[in-house]
Specification:
mainly alpha, 8 helices, about 325 residues
Length: about 325
């Protein structure tokens, strides 16, 4: 009986030994027994956790994921930006070249004599109106200090009238005169500030808006001439037929933009001229009537002038703001 058991054990050992011999090195590596150190073939320094695949399949886990679909739109946006920068660079180069050639007299420029004369006249008018605006602000500022001084002088006369019985009547006359001058001065300051505000709006907003459109028109004129010159030079070359169609398309697009802006500037300048005449007629009449009424001592005419133009004046007790606060 014992002999049979020993034989079976020997056969089992032999069969296991044979199985180990027949097992390939990779299979032995895959069946690593916990607690026994081995020399793995995996090129990575870290050990593979139990339950995961062998090192031969681990690179698949470390492979970067494929791009998502949003990357396509990002690439399209990037390419569109690059194309815009390219077109802008080409246009800037052509416009700079056109300006240099115009100054050197090597290139012609498109000129609308009548429109150019109107533009120059408008710029000159703005300069003159700005000069009037500056002087009116200086006058209002100085006159504001005069009114404040008259108000302080009237208070001083009134105080002395109470403390000097022998000169009380004379002090009261002068105090009343200074109060009237202060009241009329505040009324005139209201007219001056209204005049300054209206002229400032005309110069720095209304006229400036038209001048901004003129600047866009002048830039469009330079681009139009640049593409026109480029098309003319390309047409004269025998081997320039390759980009001739593209140059023709660029010329037509800039010509259309140039004509559109020229028509817009012409209309704006027409309406601006009508508005300028209407505004300045009203403001000059106000200025004349207010100044004349004040220095002639006609308080009734001065108040009537402000009512005519719907100008509100602050009460005499309130501090009248300077032109800087308007």
């Amino acid at each position: 009986m014992s002999q049979m058991r020993s034989n079976s054990v020997t056969d089992e050992k032999t069969s296991i030994h044979d199985m180990l011999k027949e097992t390939s090195p990779n299979e032995n590596h895959n069946n690593v027994v916990p607690g026994i150190k081995t020399n793995p073939i995996c090129p990575y320094s870290r050990s593979v956790p139990t339950g995961l695949s062998s090192c031969t399949s681990s690179p698949a886990i470390l492979t970067p994921t494929s791009p998502i679909s949003n990357d396509d739109s990002t690439i399209l946006k990037t390419s569109s930006r690059i194309e815009n920068i390219k077109n802008w660079s080409i246009s800037t180069y052509k416009c700079t070249k056109q300006l240099m050639f115009e100054k050197l007299g090597k290139s012609s420029r498109t000129v609308d004599a009548e429109l150019e004369m109107q533009i120059n006249l408008l710029r000159e008018t703005q300069k003159k109106y700005c000069q009037i605006l500056r002087l009116a602000r200086v006058l209002a500022n100085h006159f504001y200090h005069v009114v404040q001084t008259q108000h302080a002088l009237g208070e001083a006369f009134s105080e002395l009238a109470q403390k000097s019985p022998e000169l009380q009547e004379e002090f009261l006359y002068n105090a009343e005169t200074q109060r009237n001058l202060t009241k009329n001065g505040e009324t005139l300051l209201g007219a001056l500030n209204f005049f300054i505000s209206s002229v400032n709006t005309l110069c720095n907003k209304t006229i400036e808006d038209t001048l901004q459109s003129i600047r866009h028109y002048e830039n469009a004129r330079i681009e139009y001439d640049a593409y026109r010159t480029d098309l003319e030079s390309m047409s004269t070359k025998p081997d320039g037929t390759a980009g001739l169609e593209e140059a023709q398309q660029g010329f037509e697009a800039h010509r259309e933009q140039f004509m559109k802006l020229r028509a817009e500037v012409t209309i704006k300048m027409k309406f601006l001229d009508e508005n300028r005449i209407k505004v300045m007629h009203k403001q000059l009449l106000l200025f004349h009537n207010a100044i004349s009424a004040y220095f002639s001592g006609n308080q009734t005419a001065l108040e009537a002038t402000l009512k005519q133009f719907n100008i509100k004046v602050k009460t005499p007790n309130s501090t009248f703001p300077s032109w800087l606060e308007q």
